[in-house]
Amino acid sequence: MAIRISTDFGSLTNNKLWNRGMAVFLALPGSLKYSNPPMTMAMLKSLLDALNEAIIEAMEGTKTARTTRDSLQAQVITALKHLAAYVQANCDGDASDSGFESYDTKTRRKPARLVTTPDFRKIYRGLNSGEIMFLINAVLYARGYEVQYAALQDGVPGPWTVVDVMNVKSAFRISGLTRATRYAFQVRAIGVGNRSDWSATVNMVCD
C-alpha cells in the first residue's frame, strides 16, 4: 500500500483550513516519527491563532481585515504543505497519526467532481434590525459555501465581506447590517476540485 498525503488545502474554506491545521498541531507532537519537523508546533499554532482572529475580523468587512485574512490563509497553506512533505517522508507508510488526510495511491482515485454555481433559495429580513436571513440551494459535491455581501452606493457594490456557510439545511443569518441600506448578495460553492463562480447578485434593503 502506497500512502500519499492530500495537499489540496486551497480547496478548503477558511474554517476547514484552520481545523486541518489544528488537527496537525495536536497530532504531530504525539508521534515519535515526527520529532524534527521543519517548523515548530508553536510557530504553527501562532499562525493558526492569527488566522482565526483574522477570519473573525474580516466579518466586519474592512478591506484591510480581508487582506490580512487572505495573507494568513496563504501562510497557513504554505506551512501545511511543508509539514505534509516532512510527514510524507517520515510516515513509514502510515500517516494516520499525523492529522493530515491521506489516500492509497494504488487504489484508483476518481477524478475530483466539479461543483456548479449555486443560487439562493430564499433571502428575507430577520426578526431583529440589521439582520438578513438566507437559504442556499445545495449543489452536488459541495464541501461548503461562501456568501459575499456589500452595501450598494448608487448601484455599485462597496467592499465585499465573505462568510463561510457549512449548513444549507437551515437559514443562515448575517447581522450588524446598516438599516435602510441596500445590499448585494452572492453565493458560491466550494468543492474538492474547484470553487464555483459567484452566483447572480441578489439585492435587498435591510430594515
Counting structural domains, the number is: 2
- Tell me the Rg in angstroms: 20 Å
| Largest sheet, strands/sense/barrel | 5 strands, antiparallel
Find the structural class using helix and strand composition. alpha+beta
| Principal-axes shape call | elongated
Number of strands: 10
Rounded average pLDDT = 89
Q: What is the number of helices?
A: 3
Report the portion of residues in β strands: 25-35%
How much helicity do the residues have? Answer: 25-40%
Description:
Strands 5, 6, 7, 9 and 10 form a five-stranded antiparallel β-sheet that branches. Strands 3-4-8 form a three-stranded antiparallel β-sheet, with no helix packed on it. The protein contains three helices and ten strands. Helix 1 packs antiparallel against helix 2. The termini are far apart. It has helices at 14-27, 41-58, 63-90; strands spanning 3-5, 102-104, 119-125, 132-137, 144-153, 156-157, 161-165, 172-174, 181-190, 202-206. The protein has two domains: 3-104, no CATH class; 119-206, Immunoglobulin-like, CATH 2.60.40.
